[in-house]
Amino acid sequence: MKLNFHINGQLHSGDVDRHVSLVDYLRDSVGLTGTKVGCGSGVCGSCTILVDGKTTKSCRLLAMEADGSDVTTIEGLAKNGELHPLQKAFWEKNAVQNGFSTPGMIMAAAELLSRNADPTDAEIKHWLSGNLSRETGYQQVVEAVKAAAAEMRGEGKTTTEGPDNTSIGQSPKTRKTRELVTGEAKFIADMSLPGMLHAAILQSPHGHARILNVDTSAAETMPGVVRVFTAKDTEGVMPMPVIWIPPFAESHFLPHPSGIVPGSHSVFAKDRVRFVGDQLAAVVAETRAQAYAALDKIKVQYEALPLVLDVEEAVKEGAPQLHETAPNNILIETVFGDKEATEKAIADAEVVVEQRIYNQRLMHNTLEVRGVLAQHDPATNQHTIWANTQIPYPHRLLISLYVLGIPYNKMRVIVPAMGESNGCKGNLYPDTPLVLWMARELGRPVKWVDTRAGFARNTAQSRDQVQYVTIAGSKEGKISALSCRALSNVGAYPVINAPGQPLALIGRSITGAYAIPQACYDIKVVYTNKVPTAPMRGSGRAEAIFLIERAIERFAREIGKDSAEVRRMNMVPKDQFPYENGLGWTYDSGDYETALNLALEKAGYDDLATQKAEASERNKLLGLGIGSYVAVAGVGNSAKMGGEGLMSGTWGSSYLHVAPSGEVAITTGAQPHGQSQDTTFAQIAAQELQIPMDYITIQHSDTDLPLYYGQASYGSRSLSVEGAAVQKACRMIIEKARKMAAHLFKMPLELIEYKEGKVIGTPAPEQAVMTLQQISLMLWFGWDLPEGMDPGLEATSYFDPENFNFPFGTHVAVVEIDRDTCAVDLVKYVAVDDFGTVINPEVVRGQTHGNILLGISQALSEETRYSPENGQVLTDDFDTYSIARADWIPVLELHRTETPSPSNPLGAKGAGDVSNPPVAPAVVNAICDALSDYGVKHIDMPVTPEKIWQTIYQDKAS
Amino acid sequence: MIGYTYAAPKTAGEALALLRKNDAQAIVSLQHIAEFKTIKMDDAGCVIGSRVTLSELKQHSASANYPALTQALASISDPHLLNHTTMEDSLNASDIELSSVTAALLAMDADVVIVGDEMEEKYAFSDFLQTDLTHDELVAFVRIVLPDESTSSYENAGFLSGSKPICGVAVARQKNADNTLRIVLGGCTDKPVRLQSVEAALAGKELNASTVDAALEKIEGEPLTLRKDLPIGEDYLRHLIKALTKKAILKL
């Protein structure tokens, strides 16, 4: 039908099919890609626009329903180049990280402010509860909406200008943010190339089945279909590799034809599917709709096989076997620590407490799904992919060497603006090389962007570990031993770094912030018919800290002591650093007790009894929970990582080039996806080089940039490793500039000072002075160089820390539980974190909010559920997989102490994901505290009202 | 795309004329019928046009007279849903997202007015739920009698899932000698249902925790058909129904 409506003030006419949603029409037909698609079912709010001024989820409206209306998208909010107050405020208040959810949030807030000029925090949170933010959290969003409201009332002024002081410890405005608040940034789904085709990939409806026949004939005749590919077409494509092989453990990997590394799953399952994300066929068509329509016509005959989803079932005799190479479905089996000595210490202890814990299976559930756009140029044999991956350089190597067998130098990986990751985009998935391979086969660019339901089946999930924990000690509270026997569910195949999380990251971390004389971790990593697991924000440390913080709480209750006091008694004292924790980590620096005391003071710990009594009068059970933590970060020392089994160097890298104009370009090995390295690394360089930050450009996201290798961003490593490499490159530049100046000024090197962006010969500072730009020009000419010096003011630096770094802190949660409904209300949250030296406090604050949000969500609601009948993922949308919304979260009170790390010259410790681990235990400890009168000792996450009700009423009744 | 016609009539008469043609290829938008988009208050109560959005209703002063409706609307936080759901949509008893409003309307004994070919007919909402409209009939209005002050309430459990209410209870006191209650359960049932055994047990009684607890025992005898697709187990759901009903009643 014919459509006539206004879009951003302009009359628009067009034809539209009656089935097309408004968001698809705006994005595909009008080209307004600032409106994002997150779920397609109206739950996440990423597609929010205004229709006649009303908040509208454009995936839930047909385009034809907009006929005659006035549509405003994020692109229409700024007027005459001037950002809307909301856009400015989101930027100013650091309410933007990766920016994927930002346009929808801003548009929803726009209607709120048109109705309510001065909304309260509660009103804003209520209004925005239809807009999800996974990694950014909600607090800065609320602050931004209030700031914008104030400006619109004429009572305040937001600005796009940052403070003049950009030095370390200040918070200049984040870079590359304007394009995120205006919707101009191009994410993978927003990209297109001339002649581009679209792919759709068929997944298995069975968790475990034999493939009898794949019939693509009907699909091949569907409109627009160019080709349908199946396993018979991809004989020459190798399976995914695994590049983490622990040398100290018994392991049962899958073979890989390279003979260099083990293998994982193939781009298409050949004769058997082992989980519902196993791929069977791909359709490539002229449009996305045609590709998905044809996908429905592929007929596959299966013979269902017995399933195994539970790790404890999978290791039993007679369980369905997933791989011939792995008897009893065990991928890896090993022990960390001295098991015998730990068992003896437990046997000798006065008090022993045991607890089984199931750290549930989570989904990363980024609002942005994964996607790939690939192109092959037959004239040059150049292969290029654009993908929303955390690890472009490893993609280049792994795809070229291990999967497609193409020249490394003909492979380029580019990362566009990237939505959230939470860790799931740090893996190599079979779809990625498949899309590139199909583009080469067809001679046309091919794009594949997943669906929300597809994501639930093909994208790695996380956690899913059963733990049998034993903690032992004296009646006074001194802990003497900790043991954990664990089974980790790795899913149907190992991902590239599968062993990392269940082995070292948990196994060496289980003693947390405490000095425990004997500890051991006995682990089996087990195959099941579930989606493969991979690291997720807080990876490994989250499982470890949860178990120790629950265990110490249980122990304290058992001996009738204050759990805060038991923590104090056992914490590593501040004069004991560096501290060997007995499991392989050397804690670098810290003052754990100060953080604990500060958190308790801020949470009103001394006043707890009064708070409980007051809540009880309102029919509420109040509880306070503590989560203290130490989290390894800053991967890492390459040799140590090699010792763990990672087949990769993990050094930071940086290439710095000073142009003859004086402009500085720094290529970093980091891979930003919301962490603001463009800003923080420029702050480091500006401080080191003593030049304005505006002179400095940070480059990344393209393997054709002048950098040998980039180990990327994960596990809170960017600043302390890649940032340290930037600092080192700056110092190398200064050194070269000084040497050049010494030569030109004919002075000894020790008399050349570098100050305020200039080299100065101290004996004659008025005459013997050159700016960095002048020196770079002299080096550009290279007419007169010191002996042995090459021209050009550039440096390549590498930084490999001698040790990891160990951020720490204590979080405190206060909950109220309704006695009747058992609903949990998080009423207070205090976090004290120590990330060492902080470059940009506002950036770190934002990351901390994201960590806390995820932890609350894990504690209270998130859980991936599977059908026991067919292994299907049941939680494949945002209704069935419930993540924390704005109105769940109280004001998060954040505090920091600052203990520099000796592991890097910046003194920085990780921050990106490390403050997640204490959150879930703090919340669960609070719930168990609230329920202590009922004798509740433990409830597995997610602690839903139903589980609480069952525990305190039903179990008692039975 | 080819073959479909689209029309957006401005009056109910025009819309009915188009609908009478019964053309399967015709798309008739009811968005622009002004008479269906008004809210009117008079001494007898409130008349809400079928195309009035929940957002418009929430902002209208009339809704303040109906606490159950106000509280039900407040439980819907997603502005999209409020902006794009009409009164007529909320009469769809099987839509769990709108179950709060549906339950409130049934508790308040709302009437639904249907227009068709030279006819206008009024149904009690409970009867409307049993009625199938023909292709040339339209819901015109919902009428709610003006109640006494603060005689209705709504409670729901909104903390359980992503965005949908799982269980909600609306309660309204009726203007009769016994001040009997209409208690309606929604969300967890296929359609909103009255808890008549509890209503009967409370007839003429003072409302306090013990009388309500005693009356709630009668729920066991209610032939409730609970939805099977909820993310909670039946035992807890049955507990919630009681807990929420009690809260809603004691809030009156």
Automatic annotation (TrEMBL), chain A:
<dbReference type="InterPro" id="IPR016208">
    <property type="entry name" value="Ald_Oxase/xanthine_DH-like"/>
</dbReference>
<dbReference type="InterPro" id="IPR008274">
    <property type="entry name" value="AldOxase/xan_DH_MoCoBD1"/>
</dbReference>
<keyword id="KW-0479">Metal-binding</keyword>
<dbReference type="InterPro" id="IPR036856">
    <property type="entry name" value="Ald_Oxase/Xan_DH_a/b_sf"/>
</dbReference>
<keyword id="KW-0560">Oxidoreductase</keyword>
<dbReference type="InterPro" id="IPR046867">
    <property type="entry name" value="AldOxase/xan_DH_MoCoBD2"/>
</dbReference>
<dbReference type="InterPro" id="IPR036884">
    <property type="entry name" value="2Fe-2S-bd_dom_sf"/>
</dbReference>
<dbReference type="InterPro" id="IPR001041">
    <property type="entry name" value="2Fe-2S_ferredoxin-type"/>
</dbReference>
<dbReference type="InterPro" id="IPR000674">
    <property type="entry name" value="Ald_Oxase/Xan_DH_a/b"/>
</dbReference>
<dbReference type="InterPro" id="IPR002888">
    <property type="entry name" value="2Fe-2S-bd"/>
</dbReference>
<keyword id="KW-0001">2Fe-2S</keyword>
<dbReference type="InterPro" id="IPR036010">
    <property type="entry name" value="2Fe-2S_ferredoxin-like_sf"/>
</dbReference>
<dbReference type="GO" id="GO:0051537">
    <property type="term" value="F:2 iron, 2 sulfur cluster binding"/>
</dbReference>
<feature type="domain" description="2Fe-2S ferredoxin-type">
    <location>
        <begin position="1"/>
        <end position="77"/>
    </location>
</feature>
<dbReference type="GO" id="GO:0016491">
    <property type="term" value="F:oxidoreductase activity"/>
</dbReference>
<dbReference type="InterPro" id="IPR006058">
    <property type="entry name" value="2Fe2S_fd_BS"/>
</dbReference>
<keyword id="KW-0411">Iron-sulfur</keyword>
<keyword id="KW-0500">Molybdenum</keyword>
<dbReference type="Pfam" id="PF20256">
    <property type="entry name" value="MoCoBD_2"/>
</dbReference>
<dbReference type="Pfam" id="PF02738">
    <property type="entry name" value="MoCoBD_1"/>
</dbReference>
<dbReference type="InterPro" id="IPR037165">
    <property type="entry name" value="AldOxase/xan_DH_Mopterin-bd_sf"/>
</dbReference>
<protein>
    <submittedName>
        <fullName>Aldehyde dehydrogenase</fullName>
    </submittedName>
</protein>
TrEMBL record, chain B:
<dbReference type="Pfam" id="PF00941">
    <property type="entry name" value="FAD_binding_5"/>
</dbReference>
<dbReference type="GO" id="GO:0016491">
    <property type="term" value="F:oxidoreductase activity"/>
</dbReference>
<dbReference type="GO" id="GO:0071949">
    <property type="term" value="F:FAD binding"/>
</dbReference>
<dbReference type="Pfam" id="PF03450">
    <property type="entry name" value="CO_deh_flav_C"/>
</dbReference>
<keyword id="KW-0560">Oxidoreductase</keyword>
<keyword id="KW-0274">FAD</keyword>
<protein>
    <submittedName>
        <fullName>Carbon monoxide dehydrogenase</fullName>
    </submittedName>
</protein>
<dbReference type="InterPro" id="IPR036683">
    <property type="entry name" value="CO_DH_flav_C_dom_sf"/>
</dbReference>
<dbReference type="InterPro" id="IPR002346">
    <property type="entry name" value="Mopterin_DH_FAD-bd"/>
</dbReference>
<dbReference type="InterPro" id="IPR005107">
    <property type="entry name" value="CO_DH_flav_C"/>
</dbReference>
<dbReference type="InterPro" id="IPR016169">
    <property type="entry name" value="FAD-bd_PCMH_sub2"/>
</dbReference>
<dbReference type="InterPro" id="IPR016166">
    <property type="entry name" value="FAD-bd_PCMH"/>
</dbReference>
<feature type="domain" description="FAD-binding PCMH-type">
    <location>
        <begin position="1"/>
        <end position="149"/>
    </location>
</feature>
<dbReference type="InterPro" id="IPR036318">
    <property type="entry name" value="FAD-bd_PCMH-like_sf"/>
</dbReference>
<keyword id="KW-0285">Flavoprotein</keyword>
<dbReference type="InterPro" id="IPR051312">
    <property type="entry name" value="Diverse_Substr_Oxidored"/>
</dbReference>
